[in-house]
Design a protein that fits this description.
The complex is a heterodimer of chains A (249) and B (504). By secondary structure, chain A is α/β, with parallel strands linked by helices. Chain A has six helices and twelve strands. Chain A has one domain: Rossmann fold (3-Layer(aba) Sandwich), CATH 3.40.50. In chain A, the strands form two sheets. Chain A has a nine-stranded mixed β-sheet with strand order 9-8-7-10-6-1-4-5-12, sandwiched between helices. A two-stranded antiparallel sheet of chain A has the order 2-3. Among the domains of chain B are: 116 residues, Uridine Diphospho-n-acetylenolpyruvylglucosamine Reductase, domain 3; 114 residues, Alpha-Beta Plaits (2-Layer Sandwich), CATH 3.30.70. Chain B has 504 residues and is an alpha+beta fold. Chain B has 17 helices and 16 strands. The chains are: A alpha/beta (249), B alpha+beta (504). Chain A: Its main location: mitochondrion.
Chain lengths: 249, 504
Amino acid sequence: MKVLVTVKRVVDYAVKVRVKPDGSGVDLSNTKMSMNPFCEIAVEEAVRLKEAKVASEVIVASIGPSQSSEQIRTALAMGADRGIHVEVEKELPPLVISRALKSIVLKEKPSLVILGKQAIDDDCNQTGQMLAQFLDWPQGTFASKVKVVGEKLQVTREVDRGLETLELRLPAVVTCDLRLNEPRYATLPNIMKAKKKPIEKLGLKDLNCEPSYGLQTLSIFEPPKRQGGNKVESVAELIEKLRNEAKVI
Amino acid sequence: MVFGWTTVFFKTRQLGYLNQLRTISQTAYTHPSSSAAFSKLSSEDISYLKGIVTPRGVVEEKEALEPFNTDWIGKYKGNTSLALKPSCTDQVSQILQFCYEKKLPIVPQGGNTGLVGGSVPVFDEIVLNLGNMNRIRDFDSKSGIVTCEAGVVLETLSNFVNEQGYTFPLDLGAKGSCQIGGNLATNAGGTRFLRYGSLHGSTLGLEVVLSNGKVLNMLSSLRKDNTGYHLPHLFIGSEGTLGVITAASICCPKKCRSVHTALLGVESFDKVTELLVRCKDEVGEILSAFEFMDRNAVQLATKLLSHVRDPFSSTFPFYVLIETSGSNENHDMEKLEKFLESCYSADWISDAVLAQDQSQMNQLWTLRESMPEAVNRSGKYIFKYDLSIPLEHFYDLVSEMRSRLADYTCQVVSWGHIGDCNLHLNISSSDSNESLSNLIEPYVYEWTRAHGGSISAEHGVGRVKSKYLSMSKDKQVIDLMKQMKQLLDPHGILNPYKIFSKEE
């Protein structure tokens, strides 16, 4: 079966971001960008399915700026077969992304779409779910384990009350959580091979999508700085502070 | 300065009388044969010293003194009954003045991560721990010059200058615990030595308290100052035996925007040395680290430490960790990829991984930096060697030791800053075996001397290597060192029993 996996270019998870002085957004100039860690896990899962001979082909897609091709190349170096790059100038909300992905799905006809559960820049956690709705496909989100059993998919989900295992008919949408797998490094021979793998360039128009911006970001600000803690000398002092300063009792 | 630390304006404490230091002429430092050369700490002495540092600067209780008395490897244990933690240079000065008069020996101590037993007492010397002197006094954002007290933890200092857009010129695995004062006293090398050179080059000035309590303010923000002898350099690498470093001003390079890390798998040591030459040739201007590890070391680390990961699916006899730091992301990545591809096509490397994001970069460095800890856990008896060896013989010693110790159950692992020709050879065993020990030492040092190397590249001499000092330095040189020690510490109270041994 064909597997489609999506990747997003985001600020590197280890970078400490700064808000622009005018509050219009995060300062991305000279900031290290990388593949969204959950997308990395999605690519790893897709490649493992191919290695297990469950998937016949892994296609990686990204909807983002021109530099998103770097993330597509990384996914190809991890083992994906070919890429699709939908180049857009401005970041699009999940609703538009999922519509565009639906067009790609209808074009490529994969049996399984794997995405990261959320992007670490916006933390939306919406694209996978919306895509499943648009396609009218079953979805297994926050997957910590994925297993193909014949024509069905068993997905173990990490939820607040524990682990839940679902059985889904294929075709289906899966979004990945942290403990699903540990992504491999891109090794040099694979990086070299990846340069020869094809990346198709598409525009939103080719997918019959309009970049509609239903949401407008009004402002972005940093959370208030953490105040220093105090050491108290006695229980009486603790109670006094809880009552009069923190006002919690 | 808008960064929240109180800038401490230090007042030079002028002592009320001139200090008469003994003339050097014929007398040179003679190593005290035992602690009988010094006074014993009396209860009046303790009260007085406690009065200088206030209760928060005193550690007296036996269990609390354990970490002050024991070195990081757990091999050397002293027996001090008092550790003092002064909070400012003035307190250090008062303590030393008192100890000088009373002939009470002192061990200056920072993060206590030294590997040659130099930072813990041998007998009951008072521990003078600088950990409470952890203020960053000043930072000039135009020049990158940071002035800080000796007790600042290296990682804290590094993070601080990073936030300001600079890089600290020193980096080592112990950064979470070691303090800059100790780094300076050791003249630590680390993983950035290849790119930024030694602390002698980056340090512009020091504030040092001499054995008699006199404070020498040699802090400077000048890159060039040829006015007389460069005294700060005497204290850098002096291992706390000539004076107590209390503050330093260090020049930091600008932080590079684009940092890349790659781990290479290499089939033979000849290929490793060839890679080093090619690397300097083709990516030299962005190269910031070139570290090597052997297969035994990597396997030990991945086996014993759960947070350490080998990124390859098969193993190689040698691994090289390369880091580049430059100003242009695309240019550097292209350069590095081109270099790696040409090495791969020419079969100089068998495989390589290129870190795709910061987390992968951190993981590759964790592999390299975890080695000392892995060795610590691999056996009860550990023999650590830090040697400078000419490149053409670099790995020969490791191979020799493996065949020499073939009949014993022990681990022989090695890694090092091969870019600086600095080998870290480690042998560990679970059994205490005198014949094993005799096969290792002094052979390792004799071999090193025979091949024109140094018995201590960066760790210093401390207590461990003092009897081998003559293997790397001529007698006349050692004699002059002893004369200088006698000049600066005539009562011999600063870190006695270190560097020079009885046998010298």
